[in-house]
Amino acid sequence: MEATLAPALMGVDTRQLQHELRDFFEEVADLLDDDRIEDFPGFFTDDCLYKVTSRENFSEGLAAGLMYCDGIGMLRDRVLALRETQVYEPRSWRHFISGVRVLAVNGDVVLSRANFLVTESMTDRNPALFLVGQYLDTVVRHGDRWLFRERIAVCDNHHVRRSLIVPV
Predict the structure, then answer these.
(1) In terms of pLDDT, which residue wins out, 80 or 40?
(2) Assigned CATH topology for domain 13-155
(3) What is the maximal distance between C-alpha atoms in the chain?
(4) Long-range contact list for 142-147, CB < 8 A, 24+ apart?
(5) Residues 131-136, mean pLDDT to the nearest whole number
(6) What digits encode the pLDDT tens for the residues 22-39?
(7) 82, 90, 132, 148 — which has fewest CB within 10 A?
């Protein structure tokens, strides 16, 4: 994701746009925190890309990711696999999002960046920091709402302590 800032943002109310995007990102975080992952694909375009990757892989331009879904079908399959085939210890996540910034605007397409911090709680353990990093998003206006065309979660963690089970 590359963007030229100044020309793309001339005449755009970036404060309003950042507010809209923050609300959108928090809505998605709420559904993940509430374990409503079946709703997650509804926030993406059909031709979407969803990827969780390490800072090192992202910086080197490597395609490998901790989670990779190319298209809405793969995203729906991921949700189905979570609900019907995977066995894992129950856990709760809480997403904290900050620093939402609009990087570029081209019509109804917006490039943005936001920081995230995810905590994890399990029944027999104290809550712990799970992931921290940055979302790099391409969002498109679809009617009166936003959809992700691309969401790349770039993790600053050197490693993930437990399995990455659900989307970030």
Answers:
(1) 40
(2) Nuclear Transport Factor 2; Chain: A, (3.10.450)
(3) 52
(4) 142/45, 145/24, 146/20, 146/21, 146/24, 146/43, 147/43, 147/44, 147/45, 147/48
(5) 96
(6) 999 999 999 999 999 999
(7) 90
